[in-house]
Protein backbone atom coordinates (compact mmCIF):
# COMPACT_ATOMS: atom_id res chain seq x y z
CA UNK A 1 0.00 0.00 0.00
CA UNK A 2 1.48 3.37 -0.98
CA UNK A 3 2.26 5.78 1.83
CA UNK A 4 1.31 9.39 2.31
CA UNK A 5 2.71 11.59 -0.43
CA UNK A 6 3.28 15.31 -0.36
CA UNK A 7 4.09 17.67 -3.19
CA UNK A 8 6.19 19.57 -3.73
CA UNK A 9 9.00 18.42 -1.46
CA UNK A 10 10.76 21.78 -1.51
CA UNK A 11 9.47 25.27 -2.16
CA UNK A 12 11.03 28.72 -2.07
CA UNK A 13 8.78 31.77 -1.96
CA UNK A 14 9.12 35.44 -1.09
CA UNK A 15 7.29 37.41 1.53
CA UNK A 16 3.76 38.37 0.58
CA UNK A 17 3.29 35.52 -1.85
CA UNK A 18 0.91 32.65 -1.31
CA UNK A 19 1.57 28.92 -1.51
CA UNK A 20 -0.45 25.75 -1.91
CA UNK A 21 0.79 22.40 -0.64
CA UNK A 22 -0.74 19.07 -1.56
CA UNK A 23 -1.15 15.82 0.34
CA UNK A 24 -2.38 12.45 -0.89
CA UNK A 25 -3.32 10.16 1.99
CA UNK A 26 -3.02 6.41 2.19
CA UNK A 27 -5.78 4.73 0.20
CA UNK A 28 -8.85 4.27 2.36
CA UNK A 29 -7.86 6.93 4.88
CA UNK A 30 -10.44 9.66 5.33
CA UNK A 31 -8.68 11.89 7.82
CA UNK A 32 -5.87 14.24 6.85
CA UNK A 33 -4.08 16.43 9.36
CA UNK A 34 -1.52 19.13 8.75
CA UNK A 35 1.37 20.04 11.03
CA UNK A 36 4.05 22.69 10.98
CA UNK A 37 7.49 21.78 12.23
CA UNK A 38 10.03 24.44 13.15
CA UNK A 39 13.22 24.13 15.19
CA UNK A 40 11.89 26.48 17.87
CA UNK A 41 8.30 25.29 18.18
CA UNK A 42 8.52 21.65 17.27
CA UNK A 43 5.51 20.00 15.68
CA UNK A 44 2.34 22.08 15.86
CA UNK A 45 -1.09 21.03 14.74
CA UNK A 46 -2.66 23.17 12.02
CA UNK A 47 -5.97 21.49 11.19
CA UNK A 48 -7.63 18.21 10.40
CA UNK A 49 -10.02 17.34 7.61
CA UNK A 50 -12.36 14.40 7.60
CA UNK A 51 -14.75 13.67 4.74
CA UNK A 52 -14.17 17.09 3.19
CA UNK A 53 -14.97 18.93 6.44
CA UNK A 54 -12.59 20.66 8.79
CA UNK A 55 -13.02 18.73 12.02
CA UNK A 56 -10.36 20.31 14.19
CA UNK A 57 -8.27 23.43 14.07
CA UNK A 58 -5.11 24.52 15.85
CA UNK A 59 -4.05 28.01 16.87
CA UNK A 60 -2.83 29.41 13.59
CA UNK A 61 -3.93 32.66 11.93
CA UNK A 62 -6.49 32.72 9.16
CA UNK A 63 -3.71 32.99 6.57
CA UNK A 64 -3.45 29.23 6.94
CA UNK A 65 -6.32 27.39 5.34
CA UNK A 66 -7.01 24.03 3.84
CA UNK A 67 -9.51 21.88 2.09
CA UNK A 68 -10.16 18.25 1.34
CA UNK A 69 -11.51 16.75 -1.82
CA UNK A 70 -13.90 13.87 -2.29
CA UNK A 71 -10.98 11.50 -2.90
CA UNK A 72 -9.54 12.54 0.51
CA UNK A 73 -6.64 14.41 -1.04
CA UNK A 74 -6.00 17.62 0.81
CA UNK A 75 -4.43 20.96 0.08
CA UNK A 76 -3.10 23.54 2.46
CA UNK A 77 -2.81 27.19 1.49
CA UNK A 78 -0.81 29.93 3.16
CA UNK A 79 -1.45 33.47 2.01
CA UNK A 80 0.63 36.58 2.52
CA UNK A 81 3.70 34.59 3.46
CA UNK A 82 5.90 35.78 6.31
CA UNK A 83 9.50 34.88 7.06
CA UNK A 84 8.31 32.95 10.11
CA UNK A 85 6.31 30.62 7.90
CA UNK A 86 9.53 28.93 6.82
CA UNK A 87 9.11 25.41 8.12
CA UNK A 88 8.60 21.78 7.29
CA UNK A 89 4.91 21.15 6.68
CA UNK A 90 3.84 17.62 7.41
CA UNK A 91 0.67 15.90 6.39
CA UNK A 92 -0.61 12.83 8.20
CA UNK A 93 -3.43 10.51 7.28
CA UNK A 94 -5.48 8.05 9.27
CA UNK A 95 -8.72 6.20 9.03
CA UNK A 96 -10.28 8.77 11.35
CA UNK A 97 -12.36 6.14 13.11
CA UNK A 98 -15.10 7.54 15.28
CA UNK A 99 -14.72 7.21 19.02
CA UNK A 100 -11.06 6.34 18.92
CA UNK A 101 -7.76 7.87 18.13
CA UNK A 102 -6.24 5.81 15.40
CA UNK A 103 -2.69 5.81 14.15
CA UNK A 104 -1.49 8.61 11.96
CA UNK A 105 0.92 7.99 9.14
CA UNK A 106 3.05 10.92 8.13
CA UNK A 107 4.25 12.01 4.74
CA UNK A 108 7.83 13.17 4.11
CA UNK A 109 6.86 16.82 4.36
CA UNK A 110 7.21 19.92 2.23
CA UNK A 111 10.03 22.22 3.21
CA UNK A 112 8.96 25.79 2.64
CA UNK A 113 11.52 28.59 2.67
CA UNK A 114 10.28 32.17 2.68
CA UNK A 115 12.83 34.78 1.63
CA UNK B 1 2.50 27.46 27.21
CA UNK B 2 3.93 24.09 26.27
CA UNK B 3 1.45 21.39 27.14
CA UNK B 4 3.85 18.58 26.27
CA UNK B 5 7.45 18.87 27.35
CA UNK B 6 10.52 16.87 26.59
CA UNK B 7 13.14 18.50 28.74
CA UNK B 8 16.14 16.70 27.29
CA UNK B 9 16.92 18.02 23.81
CA UNK B 10 19.47 15.27 23.31
CA UNK B 11 20.59 11.96 24.76
CA UNK B 12 23.59 9.75 24.02
CA UNK B 13 23.60 6.08 24.91
CA UNK B 14 26.01 3.24 24.28
CA UNK B 15 24.86 0.46 21.98
CA UNK B 16 23.30 -2.39 23.95
CA UNK B 17 22.35 -0.21 26.90
CA UNK B 18 18.93 1.12 27.81
CA UNK B 19 17.68 4.43 26.41
CA UNK B 20 15.11 6.28 28.50
CA UNK B 21 13.31 9.21 26.95
CA UNK B 22 11.06 11.29 29.13
CA UNK B 23 7.95 13.34 28.48
CA UNK B 24 5.81 15.48 30.78
CA UNK B 25 2.41 16.97 30.11
CA UNK B 26 0.36 19.60 31.84
CA UNK B 27 -3.16 19.01 30.56
CA UNK B 28 -4.91 16.42 32.71
CA UNK B 29 -7.52 15.96 29.96
CA UNK B 30 -5.00 14.15 27.77
CA UNK B 31 -5.81 10.47 27.72
CA UNK B 32 -3.93 9.10 24.76
CA UNK B 33 -0.21 9.28 24.19
CA UNK B 34 2.10 8.32 21.38
CA UNK B 35 5.76 8.22 20.58
CA UNK B 36 7.03 8.97 17.11
CA UNK B 37 10.50 8.53 15.72
CA UNK B 38 11.82 10.84 13.05
CA UNK B 39 14.83 10.44 10.80
CA UNK B 40 16.21 13.44 8.90
CA UNK B 41 14.32 14.27 5.69
CA UNK B 42 11.51 11.86 6.57
CA UNK B 43 8.14 12.28 8.25
CA UNK B 44 7.65 10.98 11.80
CA UNK B 45 6.98 7.25 12.13
CA UNK B 46 4.61 5.91 14.72
CA UNK B 47 6.40 3.86 17.35
CA UNK B 48 4.13 2.98 20.24
CA UNK B 49 1.04 4.30 22.00
CA UNK B 50 -0.62 4.10 25.39
CA UNK B 51 -4.04 5.09 26.63
CA UNK B 52 -4.69 6.42 30.09
CA UNK B 53 -6.37 3.20 31.21
CA UNK B 54 -2.98 1.51 31.14
CA UNK B 55 0.31 2.27 32.82
CA UNK B 56 2.54 0.22 30.56
CA UNK B 57 2.61 -0.90 26.96
CA UNK B 58 5.29 -3.03 25.41
CA UNK B 59 6.23 -3.72 21.80
CA UNK B 60 9.46 -5.59 21.24
CA UNK B 61 12.38 -3.48 22.41
CA UNK B 62 10.10 -0.51 23.11
CA UNK B 63 8.14 0.00 26.32
CA UNK B 64 6.15 3.06 27.25
CA UNK B 65 5.31 3.78 30.89
CA UNK B 66 2.59 6.19 31.95
CA UNK B 67 2.35 7.79 35.39
CA UNK B 68 -0.93 9.69 35.34
CA UNK B 69 -0.58 11.20 38.78
CA UNK B 70 2.78 12.69 37.83
CA UNK B 71 1.63 13.49 34.29
CA UNK B 72 4.73 11.78 33.06
CA UNK B 73 5.51 9.16 30.49
CA UNK B 74 8.71 7.55 29.39
CA UNK B 75 9.91 5.47 26.51
CA UNK B 76 12.41 2.70 27.21
CA UNK B 77 14.44 1.16 24.42
CA UNK B 78 16.25 -2.03 25.37
CA UNK B 79 18.74 -2.86 24.00
CA UNK B 80 19.56 0.33 22.10
CA UNK B 81 20.86 -0.05 18.57
CA UNK B 82 22.65 2.44 16.30
CA UNK B 83 19.59 2.43 14.00
CA UNK B 84 17.57 3.88 16.86
CA UNK B 85 19.46 7.15 16.47
CA UNK B 86 16.72 9.65 15.58
CA UNK B 87 14.57 12.37 17.05
CA UNK B 88 11.80 11.05 19.27
CA UNK B 89 8.58 13.00 19.70
CA UNK B 90 6.07 12.46 22.44
CA UNK B 91 2.48 13.40 21.52
CA UNK B 92 -0.74 13.64 23.50
CA UNK B 93 -4.39 14.02 22.71
CA UNK B 94 -7.78 13.94 24.36
CA UNK B 95 -8.69 10.85 22.39
CA UNK B 96 -11.65 12.41 20.68
CA UNK B 97 -12.55 12.14 17.03
CA UNK B 98 -9.90 14.53 15.90
CA UNK B 99 -6.26 14.01 15.34
CA UNK B 100 -5.20 17.22 17.04
CA UNK B 101 -2.22 15.84 18.82
CA UNK B 102 0.02 18.12 20.80
CA UNK B 103 3.65 17.27 20.26
CA UNK B 104 6.65 17.76 22.47
CA UNK B 105 9.74 19.45 21.06
CA UNK B 106 11.55 16.15 20.58
CA UNK B 107 14.65 14.48 21.98
CA UNK B 108 17.54 13.60 19.71
CA UNK B 109 18.83 10.14 20.61
CA UNK B 110 22.30 9.10 19.54
CA UNK B 111 23.22 5.47 20.04
CA UNK B 112 26.98 5.10 19.93
CA UNK B 113 28.51 1.87 18.62
Could you explain the architecture of this structure?
The complex is a heterodimer of chains A (115) and B (113). In chain A, 0% of the residues lie in helices and 52% in strands. With 115 residues, chain A is mainly β. In chain A, the strands form two sheets. In chain A, strands 2, 4, 5, 6, 9, 10 and 11 form a seven-stranded mixed beta sheet that branches. In chain A, strands 1-3-8-7 form a four-stranded antiparallel beta sheet, with no helix packed on it. The radius of gyration of chain A is 13 Å and the shape is globular. Chain B is an all-beta fold and 113 residues long. Chain B is 0% helix and 53% strand. Chain B has no helices and eleven strands. Chain B has strands at 4-5, 10-14, 19-25, 32-38, 45-51, 56-59, 62-67, 72-77, 86-93, 102-103, 107-112. In chain B, the strands form two sheets. In chain B, strands 2, 4, 5, 9, 10 and 11 form a six-stranded mixed beta sheet that branches. In chain B, strands 1-3-8-7-6 form a five-stranded antiparallel beta sheet, with no helix packed on it. In chain B, strand 4 (32-38) and strand 5 form a beta hairpin.
Q: How far apart lie the N and C ends of chain B?
A: 37 Å
Give a count of the beta strands of chain A, DSSP E runs of length 2 or more: 11
Largest sheet of chain A: 7 strands, mixed
SSE string of chain B: EEEEEEEEEEE
Give the C-alpha Rg of chain A: 13 Å
Q: Give the number of helices of chain B.
A: 0
Approximate helicity band of chain B: under 10%
Structural class of chain B: mainly beta
Name the descriptors.
heterodimer, A: 115 residues, mainly beta, seven-stranded mixed sheet, four-stranded antiparallel sheet, 52% strand, B: 113 residues, five-stranded antiparallel sheet, globular
